[in-house]
């Protein structure tokens, strides 16, 4: 495989891991099943970091990667939160806030590209949001409840703040909406 294809392959691996993660959480309601799911989620999360790092390092950023990488991240995180509601590990209202923000920012990104070709890059609050979400999920699946819940609430705060920050920075798109 050519090195320029490796970041996209890592993104696709992450997408393929999502149904495996869901199946393990659906079929195994044991502590060991949760640990296995946490390991799969952690590996998928590492591919998120690795694909972006390699794409930038090798200067092989592609349109597919710009679209698929954030989509894969959102699918992975949203799937985990939905599954964890059923397991009573995450309150539904927190998952709803996080999922709504993810969908709203994805829509904003699409609108920005459509109206001017601008790509909304991840800012530091968004990166903190992603990091804290992923670690909260891993810790909660490992039944490390206190650090998992602390990270979950940190993720919630950064989810709200980063969403606000993205929309504030793009408010010019909506200036004529309510005239």
Write the layout of secondary structure elements.
Layout: H1 6-27, H2 31-57, H3 63-86, H4 92-116, H5 124-141, H6 145-169
Please explain how this structure is put together.
The protein has 179 residues and is mostly helical. The protein is 79% helix and 0% strand. The chain has helices at 6-27, 31-57, 63-86, 92-116, 124-141, 145-169. α1 (6-27) packs antiparallel against α2 (31-57), α2 (31-57) runs antiparallel to α5 (124-141) and α3 packs antiparallel against α4. The radius of gyration is 17 Å and the shape is globular.
CATH homologous superfamily of the largest domain? CDP-alcohol phosphotransferase transmembrane (TM) domain
Q: In terms of structural class, how would the helical and strand content be classed?
A: mainly alpha
Principal-axes geometry comes out as globular
Strand elements, count: 0
Mean pLDDT: 90
Task: Compute the separation of the termini in Å.
Answer: 54 Å
Number of helices: 6
CATH topology-level name of the largest domain? Four Helix Bundle (Hemerythrin (Met), subunit A)
Q: State the assembly state of the protein chains.
A: single chain
Helix content: over 70%
CATH architecture of the largest domain: Up-down Bundle
Largest sheet: none
Protein name: CDP-diacylglycerol--glycerol-3-phosphate 3-phosphatidyltransferase
Transmembrane segments: 75-99, 135-161
EC number: 2.7.8.5
GO molecular function, one term: CDP-diacylglycerol-glycerol-3-phosphate 3-phosphatidyltransferase activity
